[in-house]
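Our collaborator T.R. sent over the components below with a one-line note: 'Predict the complex.' Nothing else. No constraints on interfaces, no templates requested, no preferences about which chain binds where. So this is a plain run: every listed entity goes in together, and whatever single assembly comes back becomes the starting point for the next discussion.
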Amino acid sequence: MRRTDLALEAREIIEGKEEISGVILEEENKYGNLVKVTKMKIESNHGSQIMGKPKGVYITIESKEERKEPLLKAIVEQIKKIVEDKGIKKILVVGLGNREITPDALGPWVIDQLFVTRHLIKEFGQEFQKKYNIHDISAIAPGVMAQTGIESGEIIGGIIKKLDIDGIIAIDALAARKVQRLYKTIQITDTGISPGAGVGNNRKVLNKENLGVEVIAIGIPTVVDAETIVEDRVESSLLKAGFSQKEVDIFINQMVHGEDRNMFVTGKEVDEKVKNLSEILAEAINISFVKAFTNLS
Amino acid sequence: MRRTDLALEAREIIEGKEEISGVILEEENKYGNLVKVTKMKIESNHGSQIMGKPKGVYITIESKEERKEPLLKAIVEQIKKIVEDKGIKKILVVGLGNREITPDALGPWVIDQLFVTRHLIKEFGQEFQKKYNIHDISAIAPGVMAQTGIESGEIIGGIIKKLDIDGIIAIDALAARKVQRLYKTIQITDTGISPGAGVGNNRKVLNKENLGVEVIAIGIPTVVDAETIVEDRVESSLLKAGFSQKEVDIFINQMVHGEDRNMFVTGKEVDEKVKNLSEILAEAINISFVKAFTNLS
Amino acid sequence: MRRTDLALEAREIIEGKEEISGVILEEENKYGNLVKVTKMKIESNHGSQIMGKPKGVYITIESKEERKEPLLKAIVEQIKKIVEDKGIKKILVVGLGNREITPDALGPWVIDQLFVTRHLIKEFGQEFQKKYNIHDISAIAPGVMAQTGIESGEIIGGIIKKLDIDGIIAIDALAARKVQRLYKTIQITDTGISPGAGVGNNRKVLNKENLGVEVIAIGIPTVVDAETIVEDRVESSLLKAGFSQKEVDIFINQMVHGEDRNMFVTGKEVDEKVKNLSEILAEAINISFVKAFTNLS
Amino acid sequence: MRRTDLALEAREIIEGKEEISGVILEEENKYGNLVKVTKMKIESNHGSQIMGKPKGVYITIESKEERKEPLLKAIVEQIKKIVEDKGIKKILVVGLGNREITPDALGPWVIDQLFVTRHLIKEFGQEFQKKYNIHDISAIAPGVMAQTGIESGEIIGGIIKKLDIDGIIAIDALAARKVQRLYKTIQITDTGISPGAGVGNNRKVLNKENLGVEVIAIGIPTVVDAETIVEDRVESSLLKAGFSQKEVDIFINQMVHGEDRNMFVTGKEVDEKVKNLSEILAEAINISFVKAFTNLS
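Returned assembly:
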């Protein structure tokens, strides 16, 4: 199986571009055509099965040029909308991943740059909250199981109860199929997330069913399975050379499978990219929920 | 008040060296005289009041030279003893502090280097645990309230219940009175700890009373209040110059109080020192509880 | 001797505020009073001796509030002026210090953020340089002698010849006398600099005499000698208590000298402060010499 | 062209395994079969042309398991031998690459961990050098041209003259063809090196011809060109499927060339791998030249 965490790529894998019943796709170019926002809704079990993704909404934001401002605006717009739609007020932002492994550090690094307010609201009261028109934001980077011995879901579950949280925003690094997608696509979904999925470690899914509160997941691809790079390119080359899809599938199945199966690769510029993306995501979340304080700084 | 987190320094402040009723002090030189271990027991309320520290045991380990091995041995010996005395089996190691501020990063950096076992025991069963004779270890670096909006105690409290923990080892950076003590003294106590105390932010105490399980705190001084440096040196100079203790106290109270009140300073070599100490503490904990695996690596 | 790298503090040490012949002091409040710029000119050998500093110009920029913009403007103004006065065109920016020791890392971290142009001008020619109105900028962080076995002056000397440099801007961390000055004062001087002076290692001075080209040094205090903190506070307290300056001097000379002599301390917030200051200095240098490119980004 | 910095891989590309005249290959398994050392000598111009590599010796060290000790021993043995063969006494170790980009940081990180002696020998004299039987070692991490505006060769050239160096050991990250080779092969050669070649930026070669002194280059692959991953796998799959080499070459030439041409990828574990490798290389150099001091620590 050629693996991807991006619903958009999962869609591309499915033959051609013909309709899949129960999967609705809307595309929109925004901000002077600099950002493309795609909304995919998987509505039926059939669509979910074909796509290999749970039912729900998947929003994909792609920046056409390396320009920060339109991208930031698009992320803020989508975050605010989805959080409003769900009616979430007390938010716990969760930064999944291992901060010591750069391509997996997106989540924790976002947490480091958030402006949290829960303790301030607790101290100064709801009038303070109203005056500045801010959300109740708390945050945690729970670490990964190899570091803590604890599932992220167990840590978060405890906090949700203790703090009476009504929604989670979970940030994580994802795996894409194409090297060119690395660092360039932001996916926002209401279907939750499996911690560590992006880097090959499947954990219990963090979603509404398991945690009892809404889970908005925001992810950006930072790794690619080396195997998928090969398979995708072989496929397009063979199709171009006149082979049928069926022949191609057989060829790929019989292909020499390298030891690089399950080897995830990332770009050589990973340090700078993950740093920049963590800054943009943190800024987007700060603007979305505590705008008054971002203006001050 | 001249502030210190070290019971040993608190003891030194008290006039002279005469007995304080309810405070028992034992000193021992170990490992070829390279390490000095001091055990202070505060047994009475009176002793506690005079010392300004809760009742309990305070073990202080001081390395006379910069030699890793004897120091490591002494720490392992004391950790194993206190954990055995308390009968703790399922341990959550908590790394308090802010990993972005080097002198406050001791706790989180220790966590990064621990060998945790809870998830392995959960997966491979108690026979695995028996075979390798390991403790059930989990770990977390909860972050500080300014980063998370949540008190460390709230995060830990949730985990304790969820995981059925029966004891906590909390690691934190401390404040000393003397620049020369920086990075050189390890304090182990069964009285718990106030997160952030070392760097001037008092939070709810993490102790048995508040958390319902034993709390062993391990701390190392990484900061000094600039004010206490001055006061201590003025005191010793004036005493040497023939003034009485009373006169000295009056002088100090009337002294020009700099704007450096509440300014904590650290040594210029803080990066390397905190890195090294976090390695030693992590190794000591790994040897104490999961020796089989430290041998393997 | 109470040590300082700041000419301004050296001036304060000298008794009272009476005139020192050959030392001229001008103060100016700028940018809506938010920044204080002090220009000290040491013109005579007598002034140089009393001050313990070489003859030349010392500009000190102090920000009254933690506001970036006015500070940045003031630095740019002073750098441009001094470089223009000296008629320097081909500039080598040298980041002195050890990037692994945060309070000593200011210089190397500035280098990391510079926009250099020498290689571009070499490739695209002088028309490119004229079109964008940029200086010819190259940069190096030579490391410290304990890392390289080589004096900074030897490394720089080789480059100056090879590249036909006509002026150096050397960035280094300095030592101040007062904890409150840490991170808050920017000193720009045309008298050169001793690498490592700030952290207690005196090396051969980098100045016009030794290197054959103009040397502009930019420094910011990031460490304080623990001893000077004590001595300064004792002095002001005893003076306030009615002792004469002479009595105070005798007292201080006879004072208990702690083992903290030659212990440099820094603030606990050193990580963030040095990071921010390195960003501001780098931005100031970029704006001063390659403004066209800073606008683009 | 499928690009590699490894002579061993260049050899593999050449059809079959038949003899190439002027290229001599010796393989040896050492240290209980844990390490494989391959020595390739390119002796003729013909061999050099076919291989696409300059004439000279290429030693490749491959560790079969992840065991540090045998690998370290093998590196020390080869470094000592090649340096002795060349009769180099005063050595400048050069850490090429950009320390801010982890897969390119190998060289600078090695420099950070070296024990340099030039300044000590200068201070304590040749008796000191004899007593401890140490080499005269200095070191520099010159940075990359985008950071400094200066070619590495220009910086090094200046230092060589000033310090009367008679040989250079240059450390750099390399590009491999196979993901599985990442971090696992150490290449030592006397043919010099092109700074930045590994990450796609060709600079003037650092070799004996250009610098006037012996240049030993030590490199480890940390990146792979995404394109070569694909081409190699397609080739082996098609050959296995019965196509002829000629047909395969045509197919690959006509293959869909992705936008990932010139995209270098690295493993997701790059942080830890480059850190470990830099420690091993630094330790090997320290043992080779200043053993007395490595024993002390």
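Summary for T.R.: The first helix of chain C runs from residue 7 to 13.
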